[in-house]
Amino acid sequence: MSKPVVLIAEELSPATIEALGPDFEVRAVDGAARDELLPALADVDAVLIRSATRMDAEAIAAGRRLKVIARAGVGLDNVDVQAATQAGVMVVNAPTSNITSAAELAVGLLLATARNIAPANQALKGGAWERSQYSGVELLDKTVGIIGLGRIGALVAERLKGFGVRILAHDPYASPAKAGQLGAQLVTLDELLTQSDFITIHLPKTPETLGLLDEEALSKVKPSVRIVNAARGGIVDEAALARALAEGRVAGAGIDVFAREPTTESPLFAFESVVVTPHLGASTLEAQEKAGIAVARSVRQALRGELVPDAVNVSSGFIAEEVRPGIPLVEKLGRIFTAVAGGVPAQLDVEVRGEITAHDVSVWKVVALKGLFTDVVEDPVTYVNAPVFAEQRGCVVRLLTDPDPGDFRNVTTLRGTLADGTIVSVSGTLTGRNLVEKLVGVGDHDLEVPISEHMLVFEYTDRPGIIGAVGRILGDAGINIGGMQVSRHEDRAIGVLSVDSDVPAALAAQLSETIDAKTFSVVDLQD
């Protein structure tokens, strides 16, 4: 069997290739050269990029086998995540790889603007000893405003505490308790703008944050303020900042990111009080190595068919180790559901009972949907596009949890309402030291049958000779029965058989007709 192909589209650390391991065929291409990139994508399973490779809809369409786009870094401005989602391609990045490097650069820019380090360095190297011209200000007892108290903003706050500053923070999503732990006071944006001696920005680039520090915002700041942006270009209106500097309404700035990159021209370059760097936030050896190793591991997981918690277009979040063993079970329950129901429900409830509910099991919703659509649609179904298929078909999924386990430590039930109002449900659990996957319920019938690749599930009127007739027909067809259980309610019965090979449709029809089955379903879980 040929190895999956991984395309390296930009220079990555040797540790990245090492982290991929020997299980892949690794190729290289210049991702910035479009005429080289598009044909190179034709037969690859994953592509690893940084910021220079543009994975837009055209590039994604060119990757007919593409399963993963891995960005060795944080930003995804060069990846069309929506197009990837529609195509079922997982997008992963390394969200924590550069947070220390970015935080340290922000603090460095802040110090550089406070002490005029860059222009003083340039002047002295040019032969001028001008101590008085480049006097600066101390940080002690000054007020620093941090806009965005996420992971990087929090690290900046921790590092600035040692300078004896007062820290204000603006972040609608941060709690006062979190801010308090960092020694910061949550305030409105206007309060931060008017009170801060230094402002440092740590926000993602979104429609809401684009141009956040514009002409109006800069009209509210102190004339002695120094502004640092090492987050994303465009959050600070560069033209408005240049005007404020020229008019003495802002004292200085430290800028690492720009609205257009790469750039060698900006009105900000004219000011000695502005320190600029060419997007160096993640440009440390440590950050690059962390990013490469992180995405290499994600690629390995994704190409093994596993759920990757860091995938940006999969609603998974953190997955506890206790939750992971249940993922294959829930996916199989989704496939069993559609086999038994004969279609997709208008509403699907993922009901989870037992001690596992002490953990976040919300990932099981997308896992159930992947199983639900695997045997229903012609396109390959992934954790990425399963929710898209559900939305297109009007299938609403809910998660319901109950710590009461019932007869087992943990039970997961997929209960769906079909378009005609019929309710179908299947239940499963993991049992024993080896966590054996078992089907423990179909509708209101209790069972306990190990899940196998080939199963028959049929409902019939209980009477003698039914199982014998099924066994005879399967035997005549050379199909061996591996296991069987019958559950009875009054005159109704459900039979579940595990068989060693696939049951053809014609044979299934013969079985159903022979026993006059109310329903007869063939479950094939073979990949």
From TrEMBL:
The keyword Phosphoprotein does not apply. Residues 455-527 form the ACT domain. The gene is serA_1. Its EC number is 1.1.1.95. Pathway: Amino-acid biosynthesis; L-serine biosynthesis; L-serine from 3-phospho-D-glycerate: step 1/3. Belongs to the D-isomer specific 2-hydroxyacid dehydrogenase family. It comes from the Bacteria. It catalyses: (R)-2-hydroxyglutarate + NAD(+) = 2-oxoglutarate + NADH + H(+); (2R)-3-phosphoglycerate + NAD(+) = 3-phosphooxypyruvate + NADH + H(+). This is D-3-phosphoglycerate dehydrogenase. Pfam families: 2-Hacid_dh (PF00389), 2-Hacid_dh_C (PF02826), ACT (PF01842), PGDH_inter (PF19304). Catalyzes the reversible oxidation of 3-phospho-D-glycerate to 3-phosphonooxypyruvate, the first step of the phosphorylated L-serine biosynthesis pathway. Also catalyzes the reversible oxidation of 2-hydroxyglutarate to 2-oxoglutarate. It is an enzyme of class 1 (oxidoreductase). InterPro entries: ACT-like_dom_sf, ACT_dom, ASB_dom_sf, D-isomer_2_OHA_DH_cat_dom, D-isomer_DH_CS, D-isomer_DH_CS1, D-isomer_DH_NAD-bd, NAD(P)-bd_dom_sf. Keywords: Amino-acid biosynthesis, NAD, Oxidoreductase, Serine biosynthesis.
